[in-house]
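Practice problem: predict the structure.
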Amino acid sequence: MVLRGKREKYLRVVLYGILGLLAAVSIVQGCRNAEAYSQDFQWDAAKALVLRVNPYTESLNPTGALDAYGFEEYFKQMEANQFPSLLFLLFPYTLLTPLAARYAWLISNLVFTGAMVWLLRKTFFKEMQAQVFYLLVLLMIAGTPWRNQIGVGQHTIFSFLFFLLAVYFTQREKTVLASLSLVVCYFKYTLTVPLALYFVYKRKWKELVISVSIHILLTIGAAFWLKESFLAMIIEPLKVSSALSGEGSMDIGALMGGGPYAFVLAGLVMAGLLFLSFVMPKDQEPLLVSILLLWSLIVTYHRSYDYFVMILPFCYFNGLTNDRKWENAVYTILVFAVFFVLRLFSESPASLAGVGIFYYLVTFALTGRGIRHCILNRR
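Answer:
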């Protein structure tokens, strides 16, 4: 994606114009959708937790304990699939009315996006040409995943931002700040737990131990707060989330229709990624991060709105030598397919299957390259 020469300059101007227009439309439509929906925000679950009402019971077998509060006008069905230590992070929004909280979350997500772009530039994309980087940013915002992420009030932007913040602080040897950032980033644990293996790769054990310990303490606190057992605070959120395990877009659970075998396979993949993070050569950071990112989107439940993070592996593909630039082109086509083609076909089963096969082939190829680097490094 390195652009040189007059012809490339004109092409760049055209690309900026087209993607800029599409990004502007995407922002407007995403905000309009967020005003009307934001159904995944989980304000209702966090509010129930603050009121000392078990949000997991109200999700699985509603008791009517929340009927008197009236916020079902904005949130029709509670799905508390986050652990209580994570729901506590939404406490400031529970001080607002449901509608005000929805607008506050929309504004927050826009701010989070800007901060995420800044952190991408400061971490994994610091060596990339500025003109290429901002094209990628426009591509991300113009794509359907980011727009739907905003529209449904999801937490992936929020979590991905704090993962990048943890990386940023780690690079500056600020252990405590990196640890606290990890605590927050686990909100979307289906994405950020695989990505957190980056800290295994960097041998940053303190950050991992501190962040997990804080969540254990918060879970103990939640158990006392709700007068439930510690195990219940772990098992009940998993019961809620397991109901969605077969409803993703291209992940393993969607392919296998959910069920125990999908969880077993996901566990095996995670074990493989953990091992890869231990043995990957130290000069292959962009490759490892790309492998972790691509697998994170398919190892557990994800809908297509989470796939805006697919811009991250460009930090690897952009750095390839000239004789391998075709790989950059292949990945760019995959991103366009996920960002735009799926929407054109309303994410039909056929379109998901076609793009999914493409996605898996790229993921397998990149993983194979990572394994090859590990083998060569051992010789």
